[in-house]
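PROTEIN DESIGN WORKSHEET
SECTION A - STRUCTURE
LENGTH: 471
TOKENS:
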């Protein structure tokens, strides 16, 4: 075994070194290789756990002009922009965001050309049949297809290859220092694409922004996204963008594991019930908008509650309207009994449910649109899908903030080149995916947009890195 302090040189210098192993990294690697570059992918995980958060994805959001075999209608660029503007509340780089949306129109065909297959969207509360394309077999199947294509093209992949240092000369990448099980390796390259994710699995780093409440957060995705590469880049003079507390955070089942629970721990039933904290108080409008546009606000909302936990309460009428979590709902014959099982005050919870029921104004319930079932004289209101919780048995899910990925990252330009703190672009350093998502997502989230950012900027970064290497 090579001692840790000894660094062996890789026998080859690559045109493009890609750090990361998920969607963004693979799109970059494939694009660079198709442009004629020699490419190596450095993936910190083992082969089985390769792919970072992409393993847990289901779909991507792309603009398109007409219905397809798997999409029910058009999704124009301007509508995509309006959706992004609404969820980010204007916290986005409009030039980069509009470029991403424009480029996304070609991505579905390009991704399919790399071997990825799509299926019609799922039903329930997702409401994504027109806007989002779903991967046949989910994120792992998508990853497998991309890896197969990359390897057939001649891309080299090293697993269990954690980048622990970067050799950066002013604004130029020279080499990555990689920790492997048997020692350290220097991998030299003419260009770098950083696609190594955010820092959501580094709890201490989350605490720096959020405070001690972050220790109660659950991490939906890979335990490998610790922000090491981001820290190395920022220390090397790359400019940062974003707020360390902004992230893709959803409400997930509180019984989920600390890391890597994935999509099956997410709960899509909030719109069909009410959500209370440990004081049995509602704290936000559960029916504000269609679920794909608002589901990602609930992680932050729950994070602001006592002990960072909340409870979704609903009744038998809604039990089959959504995709369930991995864990069964907690069931009881009465609201009082349900409160006891949750460790809540039965009298308080019963009073909250009664007050909600009294405020409900009947309408034409329709889970697929913004219907007219609402509350009156209730704070906070429930704007849509409000129905009395009165039909037993009664159900609950405990939820905690589930962090998917963080938005603090590296600043890039329209060519996906990293911007230096000195003001100009790096000579040969590019970024794609979660590590630069804050350029587009200053806050908020819309379903499937993380994969869009990774795919679009991955292809741009890989192509740009290959062009630079060729020069």
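SECTION B - SEQUENCE
RESIDUE ASSIGNMENT:
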């Amino acid at each position: 075994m090579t001692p840790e302090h000894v660094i062996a040189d890789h026998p080859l210098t690559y045109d493009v070194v890609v750090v990361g192993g998920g969607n963004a990294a693979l799109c970059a690697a494939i694009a660079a290789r198709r442009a004629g570059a020699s490419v190596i992918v450095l993936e910190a995980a083992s082969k089985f756990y390769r792919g970072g958060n992409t393993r847990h994805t289901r779909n991507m959001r792309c603009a398109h002009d007409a219905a397809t075999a798997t999409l029910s209608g058009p999704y124009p660029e301007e509508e995509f922009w309006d959706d992004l503007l609404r969820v980010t509340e204007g916290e986005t780089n409009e030039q980069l965001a509009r470029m991403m949306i424009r480029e996304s129109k070609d991505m579905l065909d390009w991704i399919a050309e790399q071997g990825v297959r799509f299926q019609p969207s799922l039903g329930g509360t997702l409401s994504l049949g027109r806007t989002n394309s779903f991967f046949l077999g989910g994120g792992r199947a998508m990853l497998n297809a991309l890896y197969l294509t990359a390897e057939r093209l001649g891309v080299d992949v090293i697993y269990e290859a954690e980048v622990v240092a970067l050799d950066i000369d002013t604004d130029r990448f020279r080499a990555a220092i990689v920790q492997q099980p048997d020692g350290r390796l220097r991998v030299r390259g003419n260009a770098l694409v950083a696609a190594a994710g955010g820092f959501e699995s580094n709890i201490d780093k989350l605490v720096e922004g959020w405070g001690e409440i972050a220790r109660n957060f659950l991490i939906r995705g890979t335990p490998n996204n610790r922000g090491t590469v981001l820290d190395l880049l920022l220390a090397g003079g790359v400019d940062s963008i974003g707020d360390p507390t902004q992230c893709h955070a959803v409400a997930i089942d509180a019984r989920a594991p600390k890391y890597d629970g994935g999509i099956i721990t997410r709960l899509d039933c909030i719109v069909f019930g009410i959500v209370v904290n440990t004081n049995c108080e509602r704290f936000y409008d559960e029916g504000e908008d269609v679920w794909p546009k608002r589901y990602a606000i609930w992680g932050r909302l729950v994070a602001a509650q006592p002990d960072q936990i909340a409870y979704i309460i609903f009744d038998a009428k809604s039990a089959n309207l959504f995709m369930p979590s991995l864990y069964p709902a907690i069931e009881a014959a009465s609201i009082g009994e349900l409160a006891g099982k949750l460790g809540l005050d039965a009298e308080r919870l019963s009073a909250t449910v009664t007050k909600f029921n009294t405020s409900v104004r009947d309408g034409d319930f329709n889970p697929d649109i913004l219907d007219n079932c609402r509350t009156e004289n209730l704070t906070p209101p429930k704007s849509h899908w409000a129905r009395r919780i009165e039909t037993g048995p009664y159900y609950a899910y405990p939820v905690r903030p589930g962090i998917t990925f963080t938005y603090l990252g590296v600043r890039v330009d329209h060519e996906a080149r990293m911007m230096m703190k000195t003001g100009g672009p790096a000579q040969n350093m590019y970024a794609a995916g979660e590590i630069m998502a804050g350029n587009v997502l200053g806050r908020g989230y819309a379903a499937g947009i993380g994969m869009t950012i990774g795919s679009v900027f991955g292809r741009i970064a890989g192509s740009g890195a290959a062009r630079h290497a060729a020069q």
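SECTION C - NOTES
Residues 63 and 105 are 5 Å apart (CA to CA).
The first helix runs from residue 23 to 34.
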